Amino acid sequence: MEWDIAKRELSKVKVSSNGKNELVLVQAKSNKLKCIGRGTDAAVFRFISAPQYAYKVFSNDKLEKLEQESKVYLKLGYSKYFPVYYGKGLNYLVISYEAGITLYDCLLQGIHIPKQVIIEVDNAIDYVLSRGLNPRDIHLKNILFHEGQVKLVDVSEYLEPGNDKRWEYLKEGYTEHYHLFDGKALPFWLLENVRKWYNQTRPERLNLQDFVKDLINPFQERLRF
């Protein structure tokens, strides 16, 4: 297994969870690995000798998420909407490295998000449903956009029940409000407020129109659209 060559270097990495909905902490004693992303359960690395792979290393108290995500990838099979799954180690998954920018970073940098991205995510969701899985936790940081192609890069919740409505609200927000700031770089503090406020609200009780009004009104002068 070509991807297994990183095993020794990955043993020098420690990933620790950091509270509910906070990014993991990373300690790495290897100059051959580059951390390219962090989530609430794991961090993702590339190995300089095998840059075509991405290694998702989980916190030790989140290893059940590793097993769950592995099962999801096996059930998904091959799809252009998801990374290729290669295998797993004791505390990591191996998937294909996917180039691109997250929709979150598009908003931070003022990069235009075309409507085709929304259509492609909907197509990906239809594929997930066709495989008997539940497409959850689809948000700005989990959607990569590159040369017209969309990839969903976190599938860890697809075995869980219920609808968290993340994608429905994002789609509605895109349709109703994106034209107000298309091409404008949004401040980090604003996006983080959106994330935190959403996480503190039960999805079924969230009214998007009121949510946007309450968020923007106190900061209108700072936004300067």
From TrEMBL:
SUPFAM superfamilies: Protein kinase-like (PK-like). InterPro entries: Kinase-like_dom_sf (IPR011009). This is Serine/threonine protein kinase.
